Amino acid sequence: MYPITGREKELYARELKPYMAAKATLQFPVGKPLPLALVKKVVKERARANEAKAPS
Fold first, then answer.
1. Four-point Cα dihedral 23, 27, 17, 42, nearest 10
2. Can you tell me the distance from the alpha carbon of 15 to that of 34, in angstroms, rounded to the nearest whole number?
3. Is 47 exposed, middle or buried (0-12, 13-18, 19+ CB in 10 A)?
4. What ranges do the domains of the chain cover?
5. Which stretches of the chain drop beneath a pLDDT of 70?
6. Distance between CA atoms of 17 and 54, rounded to whole angstroms?
7. pLDDT of residue 2
8. How far is 41 from 8, CA to CA, in rounded Å?
9. Nearest alpha carbon to residue 29 among 19, 17, 15, 37
């Protein structure tokens, strides 16, 4: 999952830590279930941030 912003890392640091592969990249293990609750949180935060930046 790319990119992960500083704001998302700040909000969910503890939950993201096992999946951080690089500065702004999350990698999920192939043999384990996808952490859907975490993915939803990150996506919702990104959507909120994008909406806040969008011109009205």
1. 90
2. 13
3. exposed
4. 6-53
5. none
6. 29
7. 85
8. 9
9. 19
* Amino acid, res. 53: K
Both structure tokens of 25: 């990249």
What is the pLDDT at residue 40?
95
- Cα-based angle 2, 39, 25 (whole degrees, multiple of 5): 25
Q: Are 42 and 4 in contact (CB under 8 A)?
A: yes
Cα(8)–Cα(27) distance, integer angstroms:
15
Strand partners, 1: none
pTM value is 0.81
Which pLDDT does position 56 carry in this prediction? 72
What is the spatial distance between Cα 24 and Cα 15, in angstroms, rounded to a whole number? 14
